[in-house]
Amino acid sequence: xxxxxxxxxxxxxxxxxxxxxxxxxxxxxxxxxxxxxxxxxxxxxxxxxxxxxxxxxxxxxxxxxxxxxxxxxxxxxxxxxxxxxxxxxxxxxxxxxxxxxxxxxxxxxxxxxxxxxxxxxxxxxxxxxxxxxxxxxxxxxxxxxxxxxxxxxxxxxxxxxxxxxxxxxxxxxxxxxxxxxxxx
Length: 184
Known about the structure:
This protein has helices at about 1-20, 20-45, 50-70, 70-95, 100-105, 115-140, 145-150, 155-170. By secondary structure, the chain is an all-alpha fold.
């Protein structure tokens, strides 16, 4: 269910682009992201910082795209988002000596500090990769190709999540048999 909530703005964006144009698709993306944010809030009763930043960037870059009739703004929004995330994680880890991933996810995952640090560096690399690849496609390919890239580009986060899961699996501790529900 959560995957559908996360995916539907981009899916609607692509459909609107294929049926109309980049400006209609941008307006659809803006509206869908507002709805998505509302749904997330309705389910979780809170919004993560990433949801707030994504909404803000979609609305700002979308508005610039529509008002200036310049598709470059919406095409560069993912690059700005990913680069910003990499900068924040990097500055937090290396300048402020805080690990934002551990702060956000530490209550859900029990991992050694060195794994949290490594994981944060991996996420920084992933965000820089995603920012770079979007920038490259946005700068050197047609809008048609960039929109198609938005769909098949979802392979990158899926592969990242699988790789991250494989990396983390060796550090996750199994609960003792007595602590599992339904076990004596």
